[in-house]
Amino acid sequence: MPVIRAINEPLCLPELFMLSRQVLRYAEDLNVVRSERDEACAALRAARFDVLLRLAAAAELKDDDTGAHLVRMGHFSAALARACGQSEEWCGRLLYASRMHDVGKIGVPDRILKKAGRLTDEEWQEMRRHPEIGAAILGGSDNPVLQMAAEVALHHHERFDGGGYPHGVAGEAIPLAARIVAVADVFDALTSDRCYRPALPVDRALGMIEHGAAEGHFDADVVAVFLRISAEVMELRAAIAAGRVEGEFRS
Questions:
Q1: Is 237 domain-assigned?
Q2: Which residues pair with 194 in a beta bridge?
Q3: Fewer CB within 10 A of the terminal residue: the chain, N end or C end?
């Protein structure tokens, strides 16, 4: 039978030793629980990130049969950010954040996305909802990549002169990440085959980008840097096509 001890009776040395060992075991068990919890949270965050990348790819496949546009413009955006003087950490975030810019198109009906002719006013209003849909999908995360992705999704169709959508934000009030993605996205779209037209020559596409800056569509400073590194961008495009540049989605 266990010995009943008075509350104020002191413990002997063996009992103190046994108690200390129990406390250490409890502490070790607590550390294991905390570690398992942290690993589970990290796995959950990684899984969410992977799901969102795949959702972005699914949205892109509604427009593009290969999804290669996301890979190219992600690398173009990172290269442009680097040339604009951003840190490697910032550029690494943009590499993946940029790929989620059109995730909101998952909420736009195919009859609108794939329509061969001109959109009606009602259809155009529906199309213009995709930045806010994307921001809603990506928002509320403590992941820096997803935070940047939400900004890009919301603002990549804003114009530098304030004439864009969804909110008519202008100038440097548009996040830099979105201003960079806007240029990289349009350039890759212009130089890629589409169901309604073949790819444009690089020189013509660059001319259209430069004209877009002059007309207030793009940030002129960002465009000036892009024009300066255009040869590097085309080398990067060729390397991606040849499989010499990582193209898979990673968290």
A1: yes
A2: 197
A3: N
Range of the domain at 127: 30-241
Hey, what are 31's tokens? 């550390």
**99 falls within a domain:** yes
Number of domains in the chain: 1
Residue 222 in contact with residue 179, Cβ under 8 Å? yes
Cα separation, 146 vs 168, in Å, equals 23
Q: Is 24 within the bounds of a domain?
A: no
- Label residues 47-60 b or e (16+ Cβ within 10 Å = b): eebeebbebbbebb
Mean pLDDT for each consecutive 10-residue tract of the chain (251 residues)? 54 66 69 62 56 60 65 94 96 92 88 85 93 90 88 97 96 98 95 80 96 97 98 93 66 37
Distance (Å, whole) CA 237 – CA 241: 6
Full DSSP string of 58-77:
HHHHTT-SS-HHHHHHHHHH
- In this structure, is residue 21 part of a structural domain? no
| Predicted TM-score of the model (pTM) | 0.77
